[in-house]
Every structure is written in structure tokens, then in C-alpha cells.
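Standup notes
- DV: blocked on the single-chain target, sequence here:
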Amino acid sequence: MKVRGKHVVLSLVCLVLGFILAFSFSLANTEQKELGSRTNGQWKQEETLRDQILEYQQKNNRLQEKLYEKQEKVGNMEKEFSKEKQIYFNLAEDAEKYRMYLGKTKVKGPGVTVTLSDAKYDPEEENANNYIVHEHHVFKVINELYIAGASAVAINGQRLKHDSYILCNGPVIQIDGIEYPAPFKITAIGDPEVLSSAMNITGGVKDQLVNENIIFEMKKENSVILEPTIGES
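- DV (later): unblocked, structure below
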């Protein structure tokens, strides 16, 4: 009985192995037939398609390289245009500064107003020149204002320009040939805090003028308008 049982098991194993081998052989034949069923034309067509895909990829790569080159050129041109724009802006800014320096353009902005007045008449003072405003007093104020950053200055409404001159003629002061009596109202455009601080420095212009019997008044202005000069310059 034991010998017969072994024969039965062995027979079953052989049967299963045979089935597996037959199935594998059949599957291999099927794949071989499918591969063999493709014609040479189909193989060539696939190869052609692969070549076309490769060619398109290469063209795409070349186009991307050209695109990057163009983008780099555009970037460089934008930088150049930006530089030129800045140059033109600086030139226009300089031209405006020169026009303002020549007194040929209207100027508006914050600033200060400094008023210089003659001292009260003193009968004990023998020399009247000791209590009136002279051109050197006006010069001190104007120079200090320019040093402190004033962009434009006017005296009694008359705009000063690059070649303006101031002369003292007795009790009056002549500015570019036009005479003005005291008090002298000096208007300057600039930072009010900076200008006023410069005038109020201890031992500075204000103290010097007060010591010379000049009545000194100063006021900060939120908005000052200086008209351009009229006539030849």
C-alpha cells in the first residue's frame, strides 16, 4: 500500500510538471508568433518615429538655447536703457539746478525769512552808520544761508542770481541796480530746521549782527515762493 501511494504522488507531480512545461512552451510560441508577425515596414516605421522624436528634441534644445541668448540680450539692453534713462534724468536735474542757480525758474518750498532792521535812533551815537544795516550785514546772512544749503535766496522779493551784486548807498542798499530801504527781508528756500540752526549758532551770524546793533528777526516758513528774475542775465 505504501509503494502504491508513492507511485500515485509521483504520478501527480509529473502530471503537474508536464502541464506547466506545456503551458510555458505554448506561451513562448505565442510571443514568438507576435514578434514574428511584425513586418519589416512596421519596424522601419517605429524606427522613423523614434528618429523624428529625437530630431524634434534636438531642435527644441537648440531653440531653448537661442531663447536664452535672446533673453540675455534683452536683459543687457534693459540695463543699458536704464543707465541712459538715469543719465538723462541726471542731465535734466542738473539743467533744473542751473536754471534755478541763474534765477530763471520759479522755486517753491519750505524755508526761512530773515529780517534785518536798523536800530532805533540813538541821539548819543555820533555816527549814524553804527545803527543802520549795511551790505556786509546782508552778505553775512546770505552767505550763511547758502552754506547751510539754501537753494534760492531773494532780498525784498528780488531774486538773487549767479552774478548779483549788492552795494550800500547811504541808508539804502542797491541790489543789481535797484535800491531798497531798510528793513531788508531775506527769504531763502531750504530745510527750515537746518537754516535756522545755522543762523542761531552761538557766536554766529545772528550774535554778530545783534552785537552791531542790528535788529535780527527770523521766521520758519512752510511754503516760500520765489519768482524768476526778469531781464538780461
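- Follow-up: The chain has a mean pLDDT of 79.
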